[in-house]
Every structure is written in structure tokens, then in C-alpha cells.
């Protein structure tokens, strides 16, 4: 039996996008071919996918750093770079994904359910894609974006068919070791089991899993002992087995009162009332134990429980028990509505990338924050003047210059785009709002205007131009 690892920290890195390519078509006798640099390929995502053949998080415990492949750069001849391959990480059914702060990001239930843990970077556009009427032969291309880096925590609640519940040292781990091939730690001191063990039992045609979990004591539902830890794991089991110790040496305990205590804890914890449950009287190889078992059997049956007398040590009554559990599990599976929640792909919430903000900081620096401007900066090759010019145009079209003006920025002021720890800082040179243009229509000043929607701005520009054309045509110097 593998050790049950139920919590791992995982560091995932998506692939970087490939850079776009800047290239000019070359052909004999046609010296002035157009731009033909292809786009870079997207970087691969890191995706967690439920795979029912995986039962533990052990693999991630051993190698917690995982990376998807990068996209390839674009090439000349309009060849796009190859996309990076997604890295699909199989996880057990019932894996919960948390962020570093303990917030739940996803609860993965059902074969095939997926969660995109880190998104690949976009590939950069090649110069062919950047060509426009105004910019016929761009001498630059956009850089690929870095892939997401995420630190996540995976947690696994046991998803076993059967949970063994009972006092410490009742023999739960012993029972699982003889019912299945599992080899859990067994000892005669309380709380030997600190994390749940999982065993696979075959009873005829039915194969099911049994979880062996830490012992319960009075107050467990309030967090005493390892109680809560234990109860959290029981939540997803469909059958409960009370393992009662018939040979305990503690004078204040007997199978009936033990059962009451455990039932009370289950009730306090809540949500487990509908699980079918049976009673196992363990340790009947001990003569006193056998006597006690026979004494309490009818009481237990009167309370509606099916009762099995067993000995984990002497291998008594195990077959009957395993077949009875197989039947209960089979019935529970048949009654369970088919999981429809399969093949869901959960993506991190899309960020609203429409807006941006300009703030003036204490040191006089103007900071621009926003999904688009920050992405555009990442895509820019700052060694290429043309690429920097293209960035300036994009920022201007988005209205960043206008907002900088409104915020009081002047030529030469420092502007930072991006967060404090990762920003591009430059001296601002307003590109268009210089001289007469700044005044706009007669008597108006752009700096005092509210920003209008792009459509309206265009209409106004066109109207202005039409008026200028009319004025020009109507002008008669000889009048
Ligand atoms: N005589 C006898 N002893 C048993 C039997 N089953 C378990 N034991 C003993 O009881 C002690 C506790 O057994 P475990 O299987 O560790 O009990 P547990 O319920 O898993 O205990 P925790 O993990 O502490 O909750 C060990 O010394 C076992 O050898 C049995 O059928 N007969
Ligand atoms: Mg145990």
C-alpha cells in the first residue's frame, strides 16, 4: 500500500508564447516582396484532469515542479510557429485545488473534469499580421508572452466506497490489511493511523475501496483528537462500518456505548445520516471478546444493524463481511445518479481587459495599470524603434495619452506601465497631442473633455474633416 499523501504543493509553469517573426519576402527579380514573418505559437497550458485510475497525489509529492512546453517562434514565408504542448496532469477523483492563501479554486469531481491551472502565453504576431495600409512593411514583430506561473495546493479527500469508523485501536487498520492488500501501520497505541489508508477489496465481481482513517474519540466533531481530519475524509464514502472493539481493556467502555459515542459524533458533524451502516464486532479471537460479542449482538440487531463478528488477527468472518460490503456498495452505486459533471473544463476567471487606469504616485511618477497596456508592453521588443513606435500608437488609440494628459502629465514626466515590481518606465513624449492639435476644435481643449466612445470620436473627426473640405472648396481668394 502506498502511503496516503493527501496534500501537496505544486508549482506549475505554462509554456511561453513563441516570438513573432519579422521577415521580408524574397524572390528573384522581385526585390520588394511584402512582409512574410509568421506568428509565434501559443505556449502550452498546464491542465489538471481527473483520472479515475489515479488514486494518490504521490507523484506530485515526489516532483512538484511541472512545466508545459513553449510555443515555437514564427518563421519567414508566413510560417506560424508550432504551438506548445499542453501538459496534462492526472489527478485523483475528488482533488481540491487551492491557491497559496487557501482559497478553493476548483473541486474536481468526475472522470475527465479538468482545470486549467496555468495558461500558456500568447504567441507574438509576425510582421505579416502587423502590416496595414499605413504600415506596409513593418520591420518588427511582437514578442511572445511568458506563460503563467502558479503555486497551487492539491488536497484530496478520500473518495472511498467504505469508511471504517471507530475508537482508536479498535482494529480498523488491521481489518483493512486483511481485507485488502494494503499494508497500513498497525500498533496497539491510539492514533496509529495519522492519515487515511486506502485499500482495494475484491468480493466476487465487485471491486471497491475501503478507507481506514484515524480513530475517533468523544469530542471528535469539535476537533478533539484527529477527529475533524478523519470526518472530512468520511464525507465522500457511501457506506459506513462501525468497528467495535470487543476486547478493550478500558473498564468504562463496551461495544454499545462506543457505538453511541461514535454515532453522536457523526450526528454532530452532520451530513452522514443517509449512509447505510453496519457493525463489525472485532477481536472475537479473544475468548472474552467472543463472549461479549454474543451478549451485545441482539441489542445491536434490535437497533437495526447487521452485525458481523470478526477477527482481523485470526481471519475469522472476513469473507462474509467483504461480500456484505460488496452488496451495499453495489446498491449505493446503482442508486447514485450518474455523474453528469464529467468533462468540465474550468478555466480561471477571465479578467476584464477593457479598462486601464492612470494614477499619479507620490514621487511624481504616473502609473498605468490595465490588462491590455501591460500585455502590449510584454509583447514589445524595446531594442526595435519601430516596435516601440507601434506600442506608442496602440497606447494612444486606447486613450492612454489622453488620460495621462488629464492626470496632469507633461512631456518628460516619468510613466510606468505595469505593477511596481515589474513595470516598464520611460520618459513620456506625447506623440500626437502636440501644438495646435491639442486645442482640437476651436475654443476647446482635449484636456478638459470627458472621454467619448470611439464611434463618437470618429464621427466627430469625420465631421470636422468634412467641414474642412467644405471650407476649402468654398474658399475663393478672389472674392
Ligand atoms: N486479538 C486481536 N487483536 C487485534 C485484532 N485486530 C486488531 N488487533 C490489535 O489491536 C491493536 C490496534 O489495531 P489497529 O489496527 O492499529 O487499530 P486502529 O483502529 O487502526 O487504531 P488507530 O489507528 O489508532 O485508530 C493492534 O495491536 C492490533 O494488533 C483482532 O482481531 N484480534
Ligand atoms: Mg489505524
Automatic annotation (TrEMBL):
Q: Give start and end of each Obg domain.
A: 2-159
Q: Does the keyword Hydrolase apply?
A: yes
Disordered: where is this region?
60-86, 441-463
User: Which residues, by range, are in coiled-coil regions?
Assistant: none
Could you tell me where this protein is found in the cell?
Cytoplasm
Keywords recorded for this protein, A-Z = Cytoplasm, GTP-binding, Hydrolase, Magnesium, Metal-binding, Nucleotide-binding
Q: Required cofactors, per record?
A: Mg(2+)
Predominantly, its location class is cytoplasm
Enumerate the spans annotated as OBG-type G domain: 160-330
Binding sites annotated in the UniProt record for GTP: 166-173, 191-195, 212-215, 282-285, 311-313
Q: What is its EC number?
A: 3.6.5.-
Say yes or no: keyword Hydrolase present. yes
The enzyme's first-digit EC class, named in words, is hydrolase
**Residues of the OCT domain:** 348-430
**GO molecular function annotation:** GTP binding; GTPase activity; magnesium ion binding
In terms of InterPro entries, this protein maps to: G_OBG, GTP-bd, GTP-bd_Obg/CgtA, GTP-bd_prot_GTP1/OBG_C_sf, GTP1-OBG_CS, GTP1_OBG_dom, GTP1_OBG_dom_sf, OBG_GTPase
Query: What superkingdom heads the lineage?
Result: Bacteria
List the PANTHER family: DEVELOPMENTALLY REGULATED GTP-BINDING PROTEIN-RELATED, MITOCHONDRIAL RIBOSOME-ASSOCIATED GTPASE 2
Q: What is known about what this protein does?
A: An essential GTPase which binds GTP, GDP and possibly (p)ppGpp with moderate affinity, with high nucleotide exchange rates and a fairly low GTP hydrolysis rate. Plays a role in control of the cell cycle, stress response, ribosome biogenesis and in those bacteria that undergo differentiation, in morphogenesis control.
Q: Which named protein is this?
A: GTPase Obg
Which organism's genome codes for this protein?
Streptomyces shenzhenensis
Q: Which gene encodes it?
A: obgE
Amino acid at each position: 500500500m502506498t502511503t496516503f499523501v493527501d496534500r501537496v504543493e505544486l508549482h506549475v509553469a505554462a509554456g511561453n508564447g513563441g516570438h513573432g517573426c519579422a521577415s521580408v519576402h524574397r524572390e528573384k527579380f522581385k526585390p520588394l516582396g511584402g512582409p512574410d514573418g509568421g506568428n509565434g505559437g501559443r505556449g502550452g497550458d498546464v491542465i489538471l484532469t481527473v483520472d479515475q485510475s489515479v488514486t494518490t497525489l504521490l507523484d506530485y509529492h515526489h516532483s512538484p515542479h511541472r512545466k508545459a512546453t513553449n510555443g515555437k517562434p514564427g518563421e519567414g514565408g508566413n510560417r506560424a510557429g508550432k504551438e506548445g504542448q499542453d501538459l496534462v496532469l492526472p489527478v485523483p477523483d475528488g482533488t481540491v485545488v487551492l491557491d497559496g492563501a487557501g482559497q478553493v479554486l476548483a473541486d474536481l469531481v468526475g472522470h475527465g473534469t479538468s482545470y486549467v491551472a496555468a495558461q500558456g502565453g500568447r504567441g507574438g504576431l509576425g510582421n505579416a499580421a502587423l502590416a496595414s495600409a499605413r504600415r506596409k512593411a513593418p520591420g518588427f514583430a511582437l514578442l511572445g508572452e511568458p506563460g503563467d506561473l502558479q503555486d497551487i495546493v492539491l488536497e484530496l479527500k478520500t473518495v472511498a466506497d467504505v469508511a471504517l469508523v471507530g475508537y482508536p485501536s479498535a482494529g480498523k487498520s488491521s481489518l483493512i490489511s486483511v481485507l485488502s492488500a494494503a499494508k497500513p501501520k498497525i500498533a496497539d497505541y491510539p492514533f496509529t493511523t495519522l492519515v487515511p489508508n486506502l485499500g482495494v477489496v475484491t468480493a466476487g465481481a465487485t471491486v471497491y475501496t475501503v478507507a481506514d482513517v484515524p480513530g475517533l474519540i468523544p469530542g471528535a466533531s469539535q476537533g478533539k483528537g484527529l477527529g475533524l481530519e478523519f470526518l472530512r475524509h468520511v464525507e465522500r464514502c457511501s457506506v459506513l462500518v462501525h468497528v467495535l472493539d470487543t476486547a478493550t481493556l478500558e473498564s468504562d467502555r463496551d461495544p454499545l456505548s462506543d457505538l453511541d459515542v461514535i454515532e453522536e459524533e457523526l450526528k454532530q458533524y452532520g451530513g452522514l445520516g443517509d449512509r447505510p451502516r453496519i457493525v463489525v464486532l472485532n477481536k472475537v479471537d479473544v475468548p472474552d471478546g467472543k463472549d461479549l460479542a454474543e451478549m451485545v449482538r441482539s441489542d445491536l440487531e434490535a437497533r437495526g444493524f447487521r452485525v458481523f463478528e470478526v477477527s482481523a488477527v485470526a481471519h475469522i468472518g472476513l469473507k462474509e463481511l467483504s461480500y456484505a460490503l460488496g452488496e451495499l456498495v453495489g446498491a449505493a452505486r446503482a442508486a447514485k445518479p450518474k455523474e453528469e459533471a464529467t468533462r468540465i473544463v474550468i478555466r480561471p476567471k477571465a479578467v476584464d481587459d477593457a479598462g486601464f487606469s492612470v494614477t499619479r504616485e507620490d514621487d511624481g511618477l504616473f502609473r498605468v495599470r490595465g490588462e491590455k497596456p501591460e500585455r502590449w508592453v510584454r509583447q514589445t521588443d524595446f531594442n526595435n524603434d519601430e516596435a516601440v513606435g507601434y506600442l506608442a500608437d496602440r497606447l494612444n488609440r486606447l486613450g492612454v495619452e489622453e488620460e495621462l494628459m488629464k492626470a496632469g502629465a507633461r512631456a518628460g514626466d516619468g510613466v510606468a506601465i505595469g505593477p511596481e515590481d515589474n513595470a516598464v518606465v520611460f520618459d513620456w513624449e506625447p506623440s500626437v497631442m502636440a501644438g495646435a492639435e491639442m486645442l482640437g476644435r476651436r475654443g476647446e481643449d482635449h484636456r478638459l473633455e470627458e472621454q467619448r466612445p470611439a464611434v463618437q470620436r470618429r464621427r466627430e473627426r469625420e465631421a470636422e474633416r468634412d467641414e474642412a473640405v467644405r471650407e476649402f472648396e468654398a474658399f475663393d481668394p478672389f472674392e
